[in-house]
Design goal:
single chain, 157 residues, 7-stranded mixed beta sheet, 4 helices, 27% strand, globular
Length: 157
């Protein structure tokens, strides 16, 4: 499978939410998004916007930093939002049940480096950066599965 790339400049939090909603509308159980970037780069904001865009019933969306996983029922199926920051490696991810969820749920995973070799080959990788330390975020996306190709032409509002 060929590695594909797309880059987006997200000039505002609203633009990030717009792109998150576009991505969310394409998700199905078994889809995995791996969100990386420094603390404060926009991973959780993107995840919250995506979840809100596909929720059946609006609810609070806390960061899963301390709970490790938050589970939601959405119009697109069950969604797991995981924050692996406090985990030490792939064994902890298996114990959490995350690898099973990769097959049955939509999974948004922050700090995916903790997965190591467990990261699904068909995952969509999203790397957020905040070089100007303001509301503008840069998003570099890469994938191997052709199902994500439409994302290369999506534009943030």
């Amino acid at each position: 499978m060929t590695l594909r790339h797309a880059d987006h400049t997200l000039p505002s939090p609203e633009a990030t939410c717009h792109l998150a909603a576009l991505v969310g509308a394409q998700l199905n159980p078994g889809d995995v998004l791996l969100l990386s970037g420094e603390i404060g780069a926009g991973k959780t904001h993107f995840a919250r916007c995506l979840i809100r865009a596909i929720q059946q019933v609006p609810e609070d969306i806390p960061s899963p930093t301390f709970t490790l996983v938050q589970e939601y029922q959405t119009r697109r199926g069950t969604l797991w939002h995981a924050d692996l920051y406090r985990l030490t490696g792939p064994d902890d991810c298996v114990e959490l049940g995350l690898t099973d969820a990769f097959d049955t749920a939509i999974c948004l995973v922050e700090w995916p480096d903790r997965l190591e070799e467990l990261a699904p080959a068909a995952a969509l990788h999203l790397e957020f950066t905040d070089p100007e330390r303001n509301d503008t975020r840069h998003l570099h996306m890469w994938w191997r599965d052709a199902r994500w190709d439409a994302l290369s032409t999506e534009r943030a509002a």
